[in-house]
Amino acid sequence: MTTTTASTPRSTMRPSPIATGILILGALYCLVPVIWVVAASTKSASELFTTFTLFPSTHLFENLAQLSAYRDGLFWRWMLNSALYAGVGAVASTWVSALAGYVLAKFRFPGKSAVFSILLTGVLVPGVILAIPQYLLLAQFELTNTYWAVLLPQIISPYAIYLARIYAAAAVPTDVVEAARTDGAREFAIFNRIALPMMLPGLVTILLFQFVAVWNNFMLPYIMLGDDQLFPVTVGLSGLLNQGASAPSMYTLVIAGALVSVIPLVLLFLILQRFWRVDLAAGAVKA
């Protein structure tokens, strides 16, 4: 009996070959395109379609120099625009989501369930569907083809509000909020000085999600913007890719640009992964 009881937990902890195989396939599915971009970015235009796909070459810095020289450094303008859209948009969206999530979690008001149901419906609606109505709305205020046309629609995110509502309900004790009210603190001060620091680990996760979503967004800026000086890197590289049909040398610039555009996201994950792990562990315990 003792032997059977002791061997059962060890046997259940063995990794499943099927699950391991699926994870390996998933990892290859995600990593092979990245490896291809790294290898292709080192090739010249003549080598790009004539050499083995994953075999690197020695023209990386030459490609980067050509990319930087393209129209007096327009690519780096696109990178700065992406940093602006993603940075400002993610911070503003995170703060608005935290406030909305805190209100939904800690306040009672008429229509609260209806508001939350509408919010959940918004999670299921793809952002692409909303791009045209948002364009028509902003056109009424003559805000299209401006930075505001990309920033304003990114601030409200139903999914981020949903996550903030769940985390506020778990991380902010109602007793602490009531004690602050008893001491005379105003609601906005309670949120900024008490609730917001308690929600910080969860907000880091929301910030990360929003930054990546805005950085990778293509359809919204593609519809809203007409001036290439305002383009984010996604739309700018798409324009270069379209020029590749008549000028094949543009393909190497696009691939080099794609490689450079991934670097900020990798750095952000490396910097914030410690906070992200804390948040996931906290959520698991509180669940």
From TrEMBL:
<protein>
    <submittedName>
        <fullName>Carbohydrate ABC transporter membrane protein 2 (CUT1 family)</fullName>
    </submittedName>
</protein>
<feature type="transmembrane region" description="Helical">
    <location>
        <begin position="250"/>
        <end position="272"/>
    </location>
</feature>
<keyword id="KW-0813">Transport</keyword>
<keyword id="KW-1003">Cell membrane</keyword>
<feature type="domain" description="ABC transmembrane type-1">
    <location>
        <begin position="79"/>
        <end position="272"/>
    </location>
</feature>
<comment type="similarity">
    <text>Belongs to the binding-protein-dependent transport system permease family.</text>
</comment>
<keyword id="KW-0812">Transmembrane</keyword>
<keyword id="KW-1133">Transmembrane helix</keyword>
<dbReference type="InterPro" id="IPR035906">
    <property type="entry name" value="MetI-like_sf"/>
</dbReference>
<dbReference type="Pfam" id="PF00528">
    <property type="entry name" value="BPD_transp_1"/>
</dbReference>
<dbReference type="GO" id="GO:0055085">
    <property type="term" value="P:transmembrane transport"/>
</dbReference>
<dbReference type="InterPro" id="IPR000515">
    <property type="entry name" value="MetI-like"/>
</dbReference>
<feature type="transmembrane region" description="Helical">
    <location>
        <begin position="148"/>
        <end position="173"/>
    </location>
</feature>
<feature type="transmembrane region" description="Helical">
    <location>
        <begin position="194"/>
        <end position="215"/>
    </location>
</feature>
<feature type="transmembrane region" description="Helical">
    <location>
        <begin position="18"/>
        <end position="39"/>
    </location>
</feature>
<keyword id="KW-0472">Membrane</keyword>
<dbReference type="GO" id="GO:0005886">
    <property type="term" value="C:plasma membrane"/>
</dbReference>
<feature type="transmembrane region" description="Helical">
    <location>
        <begin position="116"/>
        <end position="136"/>
    </location>
</feature>
<feature type="transmembrane region" description="Helical">
    <location>
        <begin position="83"/>
        <end position="104"/>
    </location>
</feature>
